[in-house]
Amino acid sequence: MSKMMGGPGAAVAARPLGVGDEENINLDRDTSKAVRRRSRQLLLSLLRPERTKFWATVVLVVVAQASRVAGPAIIAMAIDRGVPAAQQEDWTTVGVIGGAYLLAAILAGAASAAFIRLAARVSQAVLLDLRQRVFAQTQRLSLEFHEKYTSGRIIARQTSDLEALRELLDNGITSLASGMLFMLFTGLSLFLLDWRAGMVLAVAVVPVFLVVRWFATRSRVLYRESRVASARMIVNFVENMTGMRAVQAFRREESNNEHFSELAEDYRRNNMKSFNLNGIFDPALQLIGNLTVAIALAVGGYRVLHGDLEVGVLVATLLYTKRFFQPVQQMAGVYNSFQSATAALEKISGLLEEQPTVRNAEDPTPLPHASGDLLFENVTFGYGSGEVVLPQLDLHVPAGQTVALVGATGAGKSTLAKLIARFYDVTEGSVRLDGVDLRDLSRQDLRRAIVMVTQEAYLFSGTVRDNIALGRPDADDEEIVTAAQAVGAHEFILNLPDGYDTDVNKRGGRVSAGQRQLISFARAFLADPAVLILDEATSSLDIPGERLVQRGLESLLHDRTALIIAHRLSTVAIADRVLVMSDGRVVEDGTPDELIAGNGRFSALHAAWRDSLV
Amino acid sequence: MLVSATAPAQRKPADTSTVATLLRLLPFVRPALPRISIGMLCALGAGLCALAIPQVLESLVDGPLAGAATSGDTRGLWLAVGAVLGLGLLEVFFVFLRRRMILTPTTYVEWGMRTTLFKHLQDLPLAFHDQWPGGQLLSRAMTDLNMLRRWMAFGIVMLVVNFATVGVGIALMIRTAGPLGWVYLLGAIPMAILSFRFSRRFRRIARMSQDQAGDLATTVEESVHGIRVLKAYGRGPEAYKNFASQAGELRNTEMTKARQMSAFTFSIISIPECVLGACVFWGVWLVTQGDLTIGALGAFFATAAVINGPVEQLGQLLSMSLTAKTSVDRYFEVLDSENTVADPQKPVRLEEVRGEVRFEAVRFHYPDAPPIDLVPAHTHVPHEAPREEVLTGVDLTVRPGETMALVGLTGSGKTTMAALVPRLFDVTSGAVLLDGVDIRAMTREHLRTQVAIAFEDATLFSASVRENVLLGAPPQARTEADLQRALDIAQAGFVHKLPFGVDTTIGEEGMSLSGGQRQRLALARAIAARPRVLVLDDPLSALDVETEERVTVRLREELSDTTVLVVAHRPSTVALADRVAVLQEGRVTGVGTHSELLVSHLHYRFVISSLIEDEEFDRARGVRV
To answer: Which residues of B touch A613 (CB under 8 A)?
Structure first.
């Protein structure tokens, strides 16, 4: 995607800007240019597949406009030729003229109707394309990106920014083209009718140009600001709605109201500023138009008095002059939407420009049947450019081994797990599955072979069945039930109002934290990977639940590699091997029995845990 | 379906009349009304100017120019030019004034409606938020209100102006060309009928499209919030496929809208133009009969040309108005949602809170619990239709200063019980009492100052550690020492190692923290609130054994005079408690100390003990099912 947008000779920024400067309104010249180019290129790339239809809509508009432009000319003809002819009892001229008018009327209606349909197809295709691109991009980007870029901002990109583009498309980007053509037609007709009246018009174009340029510079900054203001408001809104429980429990309503009101006020003020700008732009164009009509009248009327011009022609020239400026106002509106949409596309194109830090292999090594042999070789890792979390790690986990990772919070257990799941890539060294560097595996092979279950068991809208099936979408009902049974989730699911078909977000679908974890466990069971990582996946289970899971685990982990991170040491009992981590290093390594028998940390931890049991 | 959100099922778009809907806007719009009215007058003025220009032209053609070319009388010409110029300037002035008058107040109306919505949403109980997906709320707060503002600033004004312009235009046409004008007016009859039919159909589809757009926003939100799961299973492509098909549906709806609009546009353009075509014949005939001057015929068509634009615009304005009406409906749907957990009229204020919490015959079901489906919509629903209850009669007293653990199987209603204390939900029947006073008799503000709660899945906001921890702290307890104390008790010393210590931004827009770290901050937050009653909903689940133990010890030391209700899964958490209550099948089946219950209560042993033999375990399971 970025290749497409890079464009030839895009030498402005060696590294794409991405979302880096998103909140900045007063960009320096070069950045501003680069960002605008990026935005325009995105718009062009969106319109390109629709170009045939796009031009067809322009043709339709031209036909519609031409039939309407023909109106005054036909009327002028009716007055200048039809009336004298009719006075001579010759009605054929009037018949032809009237017939032509009717024809033009039908044509104008039909062409306009067809235009609306086709234009909607273009604009809907563009919006759909962009929506999908943004969605695919957010899925493609690594977790590292998502940890910085809030969900609210992505939602802002997908809603209010897209809305801005939609407005442009609806207001008819095509009407920009058609408006120009209309003016061209009207102008030409005027020249043909009477070139001197045409000259008046030609002079009037100069101030129009100047006004437009003035508006463009001013509005650019305002619309950029508008995008930032609306995104801030959305981010705040989403965050508070998502965390409503804490908001209410801690009585944040008042201060939230204040804050949100301020954000809404920023947005309002910005809106008002751009309206006021428009409030000068639009009347200014109209002023130029009306002055031009008056001047054309003076010039034309003077010539009629001198017998240089027919009355009918004067009426027609004046109508044309007036009409010439009709689309100017509409185009001012479109231009305004264009400015707003460009600002929105600046942000969207920035998001699309981002590169995932964890990239798909270009030429993946196929690994259809992984056995689950894991190897950490000289691995060093730190988040972003920050502190090193794992310094120099070498570790071999043979296929089929169940490993328990133990250590205090912050010891690097989760980091190790995330590296295996390739949520992050190692800074140095490599992680290998069956001897293949994870970075050389295709996404499909990697995700089939390695699955990680985290503590936060997120459930999506949909039924319990859907949520389990996420582990393997092609699983049949029987397999889903088997998976639920294996982890001890079957019973509570059956007790839900609609069993497996209970919608987790709707009536009666309320499931507790522990039940959510069971569902996510069933999900992992169904996925049936060669390597299973459980990162605190049982923390919310009650003891009987954990016990059931434990039983399931023993069969589940029987023939696969497993990495278990658990604060509760009950899980550790089934491990073949225990690794105790501290400050990113493995400080103890052995079978549970060996370590318990020793006098290291694990032995102490285990004793404490043992004491806490009843 | 995976990652595809849908609107709450109970919503039935009410088919309210457009006028009734608009009247509801009045309180919001009232302050802006004078300026909007002046703006409308300006718009009318501008329209009249535009109409007057052809009239001036007519008098010019009929007057100085008609056959007077030879006389060389230029005075009339200059008069006419002056008039056209003057009218032109006046028109521009009116346009300028209209914008100034209308646009600023509409931004205030939009702001007012938006902040009112936000305020109301914060006031609404959690039960409401459980049912309404975020995208639907967001689309109302943003897209719908934007739409409404645009309609107020442009749509309604232009609608009024266009009607007026067309009216005046037709009057002028009748005045200048008599019967021709009447013919033109006849064209309005089929147009009115068509508009009516169009409105009915378009409104339905507009509503559908707006709802679908809200659902799409929800799907986006979920796909980002659930990104870790999607990544872990490599299910991005499936999520994408789903989103794409949902977006495709929205496109189809929009296309249906476009098709209806297209058909309507055809009539709205062709009908008046065809009428004008007929007028050509008749007009010329009238001229030959001497019943009409050439100038009048010219003016008739010139006026027709001027009102042609407004007539054609009517279609667009109509569809805009219908969409705006839908937006208003959607907005008020949320604003009309009744707050079932509201403050009482005459609230009781406890001066000295001892901290006794009593559950009296508490029954509870979530408001959306089934089986309301079984009741046909049109029949009168008896006050208590049987629903799936979570709590079926809980009686429990937590003494002042006591720490009470709540133990039960997952899904037994512990979290629900905890949420009842700060009134995040209200009991269905029975009562929860604080110091003997029904908590529904107090304001939520007052109650929640006394009661703090820490959840298992901790919600952190995009703010500094300090702000997050002191979120609910009373004004007199927001010092550095208070912060340190809370962090210290919750064993959240790790914050000092963050890049900016307690001023580091966390939450979505800041540093991401581990589950255990988040839980400790949520716990610190509850402690910093200095409550009389502390409700802990399994807040230690993600902590390692050592940390958990340290937290437990500190809590015991520091909170000796605070009433604590703690939801527990583990023996180690139970150790915090003076007494334990066992929750089973929606009621409390045993209260006592840990060791008492361990001996006497089979279910308790089953729930809390890892040491019972497999045989007993399975027997207990069997009992349960």
So the answer is: 571, 609-611
Boundaries of domain holding A400: 374-612
Q: Does B300 touch chain A (CB under 8 A)?
A: no
B408 plus B302 within the same structural domain: no
Do B86 and B50 lie in one domain? The reply is: yes
Region B486-508: mean pLDDT is 89
Q: Which is nearest to B556 in space by CA: B538, B573, B539?
A: B573
Q: Is residue A302 part of a domain?
A: yes
Domain endpoint, select from A319, A353, A387: A353
Domain shared by B403 and B324, yes or no: no
How far is residue A305 CA from its own chain's centroid?
A: 64
CATH number at residue A511: 3.40.50.300
**How near does any CA of chain B get to the CA of A112, in Å?**
7
Q: Are B223 and A135 within 8 A, CB to CB?
A: yes
Nearest CB among B99, B370, B529 relative to A507 is that of B370
**Residues in chain A within 8 Å Cβ distance of B625:** 491
pLDDT higher than 50, residue A8 = no
What per-residue confidence (pLDDT) applies to A19? 78
User: Is there a single domain that holds both residue B394 and residue B329?
Assistant: no
Residue B171: Cβ within 10 Å count: 14
Q: Given A87, A250, A608, which is nearest B472 (Cβ)?
A: A250
Q: Give the SS3 label for residue B587.
A: strand
Instruction: Convert the pLDDT of each residue in B202-243 to its tens digit.
Output: 999 999 999 999 999 999 988 988 888 888 888 888 899 999
- Does any CB of chain A come closer than 8 Å to the CB of residue B37? no
Residues A450 and A592 in one domain: yes
Tell whether A23 lies on the interface with B, counting CB pairs under 8 A.
no
Predicted confidence (pLDDT) per residue in B177-201, tens digit: 888 888 888 888 898 899 999 998 9
Could you read off the pLDDT of B5-61 as tens digits, one per residue?
Answer: 444 434 445 566 777 888 889 999 999 889 988 998 998 888 788 778 777 766 776
Cβ of B239 under 8 Å from any chain A Cβ?
yes
Q: How many domains does chain B have?
A: 2
Number of domains in chain A: 2
Write a three-state SS string for B224-272. HHCHHHHHHCCCHHHHHHHHHHHHHHHHHHHHHHHHHHHHHHHHHHHHH
**Token couple for B83:** 């008039």
**In terms of domains, do A470 and A560 share one?**
yes
B619 touches chain A (CB under 8 A): no
The pLDDT score that the predictor gives to residue B187 is 85
Same domain for A84 and A215: yes
- Find which of A74, A441, A461 to mutate to test the B interface (most B CBs within 10 Å of its CB): A461
* Residue B339 forms contact with A (CB below 8 Å): no
Show residues of chain B in contact with A307, CB under 8 Å: 69-70
Q: Determine contact, residues B113/B145, Cβ cutoff 8 Å.
A: yes
CA of residue B79 relative to chain centroid, distance: 58
Do the chains contact at B255 and A297, CB–CB below 8 Å? no
Asked if the structure places residue B541 within a domain, the reply is: yes
CB of B177 within 8 A of CB of B297?
A: yes
B180: containing domain: 25-212+256-335
Given a cut of 60, whether residue A17 has pLDDT beyond it is yes
Query: CB contact, 8 Å: B146 with chain A?
Result: yes
pLDDT of residue B4: 44
Task: Based on the fold, state whether residues B549 and B423 are members of the same structural domain.
Answer: yes
- Interchain pair B238, A78: CB under 8 A: no
The pLDDT mean for chain B works out to: 85
Q: Are residues B309 and B393 in the same domain?
A: no
Across the interface, whether the CB atoms of B287 and A83 are under 8 A apart is answered: yes
Smallest Cβ–Cβ distance between B228 and the set A323, A454, A469 belongs to A454
Asked, for residue A366, whether it belongs to a domain, the answer is no
Q: Is the Cβ pair A83, B294 closer than 8 Å?
A: yes
Does residue A250 sit within a domain?
yes
Cβ atoms of B558 and B489 within 8 Å: the answer is yes
For residue B40 the two structure tokens come to 């409308």
**A321 and A447 both lie in a single domain:** no
Cβ–Cβ contact A332 with B under 8 A: no
- Phi-psi domain of A541 (left: phi exceeds 0; alpha: psi -120 through 50; beta: other): beta
Residue A4: inside a domain, yes or no?
Answer: no
B454 within domain boundaries? yes
pLDDT tens by residue, A46-72: 999 999 998 898 888 888 877 877 777
Tokens found for residue B394: 């809980």
